[in-house]
Amino acid sequence: MPAYVLEIVTLSLGLLLLLAEAFIGPTKKRLIGYAAIVGLTITFGLLPFVCNCEGTTPFWSFYTADSLALFYKGIALLTTIIVLILSLDYAPVLERFVARAGGGPAIGEFFALPVFICTGMMWMASAKDLTSIFVSLELITIAFYVMVAYQRKNKLSLEAGTKYLVLGALSTGFLIYGIAWLFGVTGQTNLVAIKEALQVTEHKTAALFALSLILVGLSFKVAAVPFQFWVPDVYQGAASPVTAYLSVGSKSAGFIIGYRLLEPFLASANLQHTTVSLLVAIAGATLLVGNMAAIPQTNFKRLLAYSSISHAGFLLLALGSLPHNSQLSPIQVVSFYLATYLIMTLLAFAVLGVIARVKGSDDLSAFDGLSQRSPFLAFAMLISAISLAGVPLTAGFLGKFFVFTLAVDSGHTWPVVIAVIGAVAGFYYYFKIIRSMYWNVTTDTTPITLEPLTKATIVALMVAAIVFGVCPQVIMSLLK
Amino acid sequence: MPSEIYLELSTTDPPFPLSPLDLLIFLPILAALGIAFGAPARVTAIAAAAANLAIVIALWVGFKGGSDFQYTASRLVLDSPRIAYAVGLDGLSLILVLLSALVTFCAVWIKAPDSVSAKLWFISCLLISAGAMGAFVTTDLFFIYAFHELALIPTFLMIGLYGHGGREIRLHAAWKITIYLGLGSLILLAGLVWLVLKASPAGALTFDVASLKAGALLLDAATQKSIFLTLFIGFGVLISLFPFHSWAAPAYAAAPTPIAMLHAGVLKKFGLYGLLRIAIPLLPLGASACQNIMLWLLLGNIILIGLVTISQKSLDQVLGHSSVMHMGYVFLGLAAGNEIGYAGAVLLMFAHGVSIALLFALSGDVRRLTGSVEMSRLGGLAKRAPLLGLLFGMAAMASLGLPGFANFAAEVMVFFSGFQDSHGLIGPVQLTTIFALWGVVISAVYMLRAYRKVFLGPPGELPAADPAPLTLSQKFPLFLLVAALLVVGFYPNLLLNLVKPVLHLFASH
């Protein structure tokens, strides 16, 4: 079965859901969410049967089905499924903010749009031509504009939506300008052809200018310094499941096209050195800003926003590595890191979603005394926090560990020093969450009840965070 | 022919080989899980710790001597780079495993106060113990490192939640130990990664200590020195080496009794174990190049911290600082770089682990019986609680190295090692040893001073009434620890014979 079947199935699913939305009663909109979850789970089940082979028709110059593409398709599907589960759990809050006079709250599209974003991310994982990269990126971004601003009666959400729209459009502008320059330098849009052209190009300066513009565009997408300032506001304003989706989905999509776009530069003997220096400089700055700014945060979503920035720093450091003798390749490490990041971040957002629904707040103080109210949720959050902080025997540690290995092997001494300082700062701000949950007391000790589906998701993510921390082989063998 | 075939079949490894050492790690973890799901907390914890102690003794009886790892089993978790969950026991790790099992057993025997959640209390103790066991029995750098960090979170939670002193004091102590140990571990991690990248055989990164050794020994002196220094600082932070020591005393003073026993007694030995297992045998040139740095820093531990200890006003602070100070002697044994020094260091690790756990247990009793450990408020306790006075006296004497206790044998070996290779000359090692000898006087001053203030003299403001005598159950762990100190003190070869073959191997470099 060729790989593009997955995109066709997902896209058809999204269209069907939108169509069905018109015929479903206002109180039953959540059915769309369940249908989307079932549909995407079936698509995920198709993944092992997909052939990672390519045809010879012109279509295949836009589209690749290498094992990396399949891996990221899997990440896109899993993220979307979990985000939809979180959205269902979050629906009561959502309904409050989208209520309209007469008729029920319009939350049907909220469950259909992620399916389109998922299609975009899956397509992007396979894109190997500047045009297909750009089109798939826009499919994701435009759907996200709607998602971020969805709670139209919530001022914070509208603010976030506006910021995301303006800055997203700006970054797209930079990216397309960079793509234009790259086309100008090489005369090609296919990345394989561009790779060959860059090996021998005489226009080094123009190529580097294209690279800088592309890096600006990408930095916006993956939340890297100095284009990270939209992240905390947008994360705080958007609904929790959307924030989770942005944080995981948007970042992994950004890194896969980042890899595809940068690979030709990294492979060219002329441009390699400058590209690495640029990436490492951005990585160092991102690590520093993300970790230092996270320290004083008191809002959980802003904390996770800065944490997401700092993780982007680690990922960029891996991407900018040229290892001498380790058998780890940068993209292998980036992909592993993103897979573990998916697990621990979605776990954090799953718990946050429940807390935000129960407490009506996403401040750190909403977690006070959680260990008394719900030992289960507190333990889940503990696992997520220590994994994000990079405590060994959790998945998060292995990701950081591989990045350290790559960076030390590439001789990036200073970035490693910054990364160590950043990781220590991480101990502080992630442990602040643990402190709230276990040390602080709360007067409200009514137990928190959980939907079975949410509980099962949280258990699965917890188990995954520990299992992949001890047996990374499962993920690594997918990346050979 | 058929018998040969049978032999071949039986020697092929099963797909997932098991070792009794796995039990040492997983029994506490399973017990912790059981407690989380509602098993009676203290009984389960004691049962798991007792089972572990019994297993360790059985392993000791079955231990065949020599320098090879025994009870080995290796399970690959990642093929490239090669990381394996591999376990094995040699004389060095046997001694530390014995220490862990003994101290864990005594720590969980102590009843949790009524005001705390017994669940969280005993789960934390068991997880710390599992982390220590894991660090001592695994033979793969990755897991040695990973298991040690397992203890970080329970320690952080317990000090912050149930620590002594005001809320501000214990929160401060909890943050300090977490950030310091986090930083130390990350520096250590950088050093270990560096070592793996430099010393692995070409094209096959491995974290197996034994496979790294051949490559590491071939490294030139400059590389060895840089890697050794990184590892040394990383491990040094974990051991509370001067000037990275300031987390230790406040944390131990604030920690609940069993956590202080486990951390000061067992977990802190991990850094020393790491130096003996990884840094010194793999990077001998680096170790000798860094000898002078080690000597200076250890004098900081012995003399400076020793003097600081004298001025402390509470019993817990005296004990916390004294534990930092005594690390200096272990370093002296390591810095001397000969077999006697290493052996003395290993023996001192065991002796100090037992004696400091005993002292913290006793100071916990003093706090429970009188409500305070402020020395100015206490006095004449020996008359009112004679057994406590006697036991504390023995522990204090052990800690300052009175003959008959294990600490004496160990410290004497360390001091001898300073002059082992002197050939009649006074070099840096000999000078340091001479200064370090004064540390014995310093520790006599602070220990005897503390003993006089708390146990002798006129009755202090506390306790208001005669405390209840210790029950049999409360005495039991104390007797066990004293017995361990005396047995090893009278017959140190019990442990030394185990470790000599291992140390002989790398002292010859």
Describe this structure in words.
- The complex is a heterodimer of chains A (480) and B (509).
- Chain A has 480 residues and is an all-alpha fold.
- Chain A has helices at 4-21, 30-46, 67-98, 108-126, 130-148, 155-186, 191-200, 204-222, 230-237, 240-267, 272-294, 300-319, 330-359, 370-373, 375-389, 395-409, 413-439, 452-470, 473-478.
- Chain A has 19 helices and no strands.
- With 509 residues, chain B is mainly alpha-helical.
- Chain B is 74% helix and 3% strand.
- Chain B has a two-stranded antiparallel ribbon with strand order 1-2.
- In chain B, helix 2 (20-36) runs antiparallel to helix 3 and helix 19 (386-399) runs antiparallel to helix 21 (428-455).
- The chains are: A mainly alpha (480), B mainly alpha (509).
- Chains A and B meet through helix 16 and helix 17 of A and strand 1, helix 6, helix 7 and helix 8 of B.
Number of strands of chain A: 0
User: What is the ordering of alpha helices and beta strands of chain B?
Assistant: HHHEEHHHHHHHHHHHHHHHHHHHH
Q: What is the chain-wise order of helices and strands of chain A?
A: HHHHHHHHHHHHHHHHHHH
Strand content of chain A: under 5%
Broad shape of chain B: globular
Quaternary structure = heterodimer
Query: What is the strand tally of chain B?
Result: 2
Largest sheet of chain A: none
Mean pLDDT across residues of chain B: 88
